[in-house]
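Standup notes, structure subgroup. Blocker cleared on the flavin-adenine dinucleotide input:
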Amino acid sequence: VWAFVCRFEEWMQMAANPVDVLVIGAGPAGLTAACFLRQAGISVTVLDRAEAGANTSRAAVVHARTLEVLEQIAVTPSLLRAGLIVPRFSIRDRSRQIAALDFSGLPTRHPYTLMIPQAETERLLEARLVELGGSVRRSCTLERLSQAGGEATATVRTADGEESISARFVIGADGGHSAVRSAIGVEFVGREYEQSFVLADVVMTWPLPSDEVQLFFAAQGLMVVAPLPGGRHRVVATMDSAPQTPELADVQALLNARGPGGTVVTHLVWGSRFRVARRLASRYRVGNAFLVGDAAHVHSPAGGQGMNTGIQDAADLGGALAAVIAGTAHPDSLDGFAERRRPVAAGVVALTDWMTRIATIRSAPGRAIRNAVLTTVLRSGRMRTALATRIAELN
Ligand SMILES: Cc1cc2nc3c(=O)[nH]c(=O)nc-3n(C[C@H](O)[C@H](O)[C@H](O)COP(=O)(O)OP(=O)(O)OC[C@H]3O[C@@H](n4cnc5c(N)ncnc54)[C@H](O)[C@@H]3O)c2cc1C
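Run returned:
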């Protein structure tokens, strides 16, 4: 009875004092938004349906613009300490270099990409959120969301049953299958790619330089090899039908068929298969509910841009909401979030689609033409800088 009374009091308090912002999803996008809001002294509740933070590496590249943005919440120094700085991308056909993109001349304080497993990025963001007085409520799943009178009400399933949470604003940072997006009736327009992707973190002997990300164009499909902290490498490859859980022998076979040769994989740390789609939310805002990260856009991992774009969405929205809640900006200014960020995502979807298509050309003549065109186009310093600028998301 006492527990019920306490719970009832908690519910009444929540109903009487809606939280300023409710963030659904504690991936990189949700955690970033929550940090920006907490830093501005805004009350935030962050919910995630998972029992614990994810421990898989997934997105492993943090680009220059993301490092600049995360400086504002003092996360960049810890990322730099934990990650590996890589200043170059090279495009290769087996061991032959077709073109190279050098990030070191870009006009930024961080003229490089930083390699760091996503689980580590999330751990550092969550640690910062805790420093800022926030936290993540886990094992809480958003079931329903309604909006009326300028307030949103979320129905959440917890270990103790259903709970109702009221908030002035809701951020849907709940990934590609977003429940927030469904609840506010926003379409996710696009289609799935035919190929699936194999992803593996391995320890191996590697004959090529370890300060570059290498993209291999092969007849069988695209393969990306990138160095990770701790002497590991990330291997990502497109396949028509990838094994559900890749084994060491599968990764070795990929490297033999598409890589430079002379590679021996000695340890498979983690492997996964995933399918990707190119989709963009038809709207980023309905009433006081907003979408960020994979809830708003998904695309091919070419160029490693998914998590980066999501973090930058979240920083933009977190800052905009903080200004409106603090009374220093007009509520209408919130429309600027979608106006700024949706075209960015549309550009990323288009660029990564183009990269995926040209990287997966099958026919021998098609590949020869592609290699010749790329070599010629990327001989121009201006073109190289333009492409590096777009990949670093500095455009
Ligand atoms: C195997 C794999 C490999 C990848 N590799 C790359 C890569 O190499 N490069 C790259 O750029 N990107 C990659 N990605 C994509 C990248 O991981 C995503 O772009 C990134 O995680 C998006 O961050 P997010 O915060 O928007 O969403 P997510 O990281 O998906 O986080 C969403 C969170 O919301 C929670 N949630 C979902 N539904 C609910 C609900 N109803 N209620 C409460 N909580 C909910 C989830 O538990 C999750 O924690 C990969 C993804 C996968 C799965």
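Discussed briefly. The CA atoms of residues 77 and 335 lie 32 Å apart.
Next: hand off to the docking folks.
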